[in-house]
């Protein structure tokens, strides 16, 4: 593709030279990014359209990666050494400083449809107007006070700064998120995660300050996770509202607004559009689709250059570059003496182009321009007003959001449903019928009555996967009839679909046509008399077993200790003065030990008590366990 583009750059001058009879040559440079096929086609069409017999426009085209400053430097110096009078091209955030520096140093005018650069650059002519004014006016019109701002850092940060400054003055709450540095291999997952986070924060108003290709990627993921339904509002902050495919989000219910600088209702644009559609796509890549706003700016740039050089030719101003084809990297740099004359002539141009009135101020920025304010409705994109520097935002239509239902009578509504008797069934001889006549059932009759009452045509469509609709926990993608509605494959669903909280987050339900009477029934508790062993309820049976074993263990230990301790033995004397041997006795027999342990556990008194400290400790431990049990029971 690059070879073909470069070949075209050499063939076109020869053809134009023959057509114009060898008229004076005006060398024009061109720096096009890879993939800008339609922009290059518009550039070629403009060269042919605006070529005159007074002079010949000779383009020198370079196809490069505009983000590569080294490639930009090589191509710019190559163009300068060829003796170009002006250079048309694109840049991004990484290369804009390189280009503006060369232009200021060498006095070479650079005409660009890229985003307006920050600062004051004398030799840079901005074909693209500033979007700050229209964007802030639209936000004020919708009375947004809290929203998310998704921006692409490759387009510069001037618009973001203007929004943040206004937010500080108006006390707006703005969540700014950079989506320009996301890796391509994980961008879809990142977009889904980003919008899920915004949903958690209840951020349902979003500004997309990105080019149309990135807006397309973002909106695809928005549709995937069901964030294109009623309750969401998106503003596309570029001048190509009609450049993208909005059909998938058109019937979702979300509000979508934007700006359009190319007015296809304008007679000048309509005439160009007819010529554009007649072009061969093989010869002019991109001519098979409507011209994008960047291509329209490219076409207008050729007209601006033509008008400027025509003015210089009429004024007989010598702009020849004989002896000026020098090295752009020379030290010290040698600027082109006639560069200032061309710069002034370019800024004095005032014409009507595809993007409306084209006029520049002393800094090369567009002034006195007008852009259309667009909204997406069920009937398609609609112009609801315009914005200019004098009147600011002017609303010409009063039937604004919410999304209207006009045009339903001219549209066939897709009704998704599911085969489920007795709601929707195939007739026994369904092969003899077509379309809606193949089905019968309650929902079939209900859909027919709704269509008759509302006055629209409809087509029944059985859901492909045979499911009602659930969201995947990992991918967050809906299936079934709910998925058909969320992703715009169907307009409404007439089916025995249960209303759930999760489904209500992405689709709207009507009042249910049938109630199944399903409810939660709770039996009223009845008071019951406590059982014989109800005292065991506070503790588990395992705990009770441990207490029993502890009781027996303490009793046995008391018995053994009292057997071996001399302090527990005492001599018992006979009464009535009978003589005989004295008998040693021990009060802590096995039964007394059990009785004493039971008394300690119940915290009751006892006629006997141990004399040893260790025996008292055992009894105290058992009493403590009983106290803990009582406390647990009270809790």
UniProtKB/TrEMBL annotation:
Question: Where is this protein found?
Answer: Postsynaptic cell membrane
Mind listing the UniProt keywords for this protein, alphabetically? Answer: Cell membrane, Glycoprotein, Ion channel, Ion transport, Ligand-gated ion channel, Membrane, Postsynaptic cell membrane, Receptor, Signal, Synapse, Transmembrane, Transmembrane helix, Transport
Q: What Gene Ontology terms describe where this protein resides (cellular component)?
A: postsynaptic membrane
Q: Which GO terms describe its biological process?
A: cell surface receptor signaling pathway
Identify the residues that the record assigns to the Ionotropic glutamate receptor L-glutamate and glycine-binding domain, covering every copy: 422-487
The answer on whether this UniProt entry bears the keyword Transmembrane helix reads yes
What's this protein's name?
A: Glutamate receptor
Q: Which organism is it from?
A: Pygocentrus nattereri
Starting at the broadest rank, the lineage of the source organism is: Eukaryota, Metazoa, Chordata, Craniata, Vertebrata
